[in-house]
Write the structure tokens for this entry.
Amino acid sequence: MSDVAVVRAHSLAPDSYWGASLGDLVLEAAAPLLPLVKIDALFCAGPAAAFAQGQSDFAALVADRLGIASDIALSVDAADASGAAALELAWRVLRSGGAKAALVVGAAKVSDLSEAERIALMDRTLDQDAEISAGLTFASQAGLLAAHYCRVRGKDIGVFAGTTAASLAHWARHTGRPAVTAAELRRDLSVAPPLVRSDFAQLLDGAAAVLLVAGKVDSPWKIESAASAVDTMALWERKDPLAFAAVEKAARSIGDIPGWLEIDAAASVVQVLVEDAVGRVTKTKPSLINVRGGGAGRGRVLGASLLYQLEDIVAHDGAETSALALATAGLGSRAVALKLAQGSR
Amino acid sequence: MNVVAQWRERARALRGEYWACEKCGRLAAVRRATCTDCGHTKATLAPAPRRFQALYASHAHAVVETMDQVSGRCDVMLAKSDGGQLFAFPLGEADAARAKSLEGATLDLVLRRKSDPLGPRDPIAYQRKLAASAETRRALISKKEG
């Protein structure tokens, strides 16, 4: 089995790119990586493309725009964990010798959609037969999950604002913007009681690309291991809706878990439950979570969030030498975990 | 609206049936190869419970950029059956305004019109919702007035 090194990651800051198409975003994000090495595998995550742009076969679109004629060009759909699943797949192919260099691309162009359609995008991550047809939505389920968590675990509702405020504090330090306190967040507009607007990460346009190579190369970071797991899609039909069993299973498969966690969460309640699930494995509190604020700070690019978090990890110049990046989809029905470790710079 | 899906599910939806595990009795809205609780492989259609204890209410009026706070408001209730299984259902329109005060009350599983916007050629669709009985509503009004 080969080592898998991160050669470089590059992204566009999540925002509303009114003047750019989905293909334009992909090109902007991936262009700096194209001259670095010959790419023979392409893994693409664009779970919003079919809904927002009517575009199927996202990988073919990416290959076309980037001028890549690789043997492998695949689209990966794992809802909002698509980018994470694409990274895991690339890691598995590279370490098994199926390719020498892989480009992983994640992108979404949601400013083509109305606000209601963006909300419907998150509803697509749920079980359409068991949940959506029954009149349940992503946001309303998140609200019920948060209320259930507080009642069962005896927690105050402030735990969610506290989680978001901590992420926003990291984001503020990174960007120089003013931080927002938990008390201020609690006064935000209520959208799915007990959750408020800031409990949900904003969906934005963006694209990110990561270049990985197999073998021992002069690169400071490598993907040491990756694992994923799925759970019952319908939240209230799981054995324990608060357990986030998929996250726990993926984390257990990783082995030694670092103290630095990067968590891609669509809502604060998801982040709290991911932290709980990882905590059941490590039995300790993490020393660092979301070094640059994660999705709560920068906003989320559906399907590309773990690519952004990988970029945060490799760009961070702290003392930590390993990190665990976690992504979930559909209120915990899927989890993907990636462990990154630093060698010599 | 997906008319074919409505037609496919009509009989089961109208009767309020769920898939019940033949071993542990756990109910599921959809067919699965194995029970999510005990892993047993056989399930049969069974009537859903008709009464639930309401636990917590929420909704999802997330259309905030236009400040349209009530459009698409989806009032929901997490509820527990006698057997202790958790279910989430939309609330009937008549009870949406008093959702918080219904927490702890016993609610009935009822068929109500689906709140999806209907096109002029769409059939009227129904779905399962929770609703307070006339006694529960009267009790809430008395409590408020008293």
Remarks:
- The first helix of chain B runs from residue 3 to 15.
- Helices of chain B lie at 3-15, 93-96, 134-145.
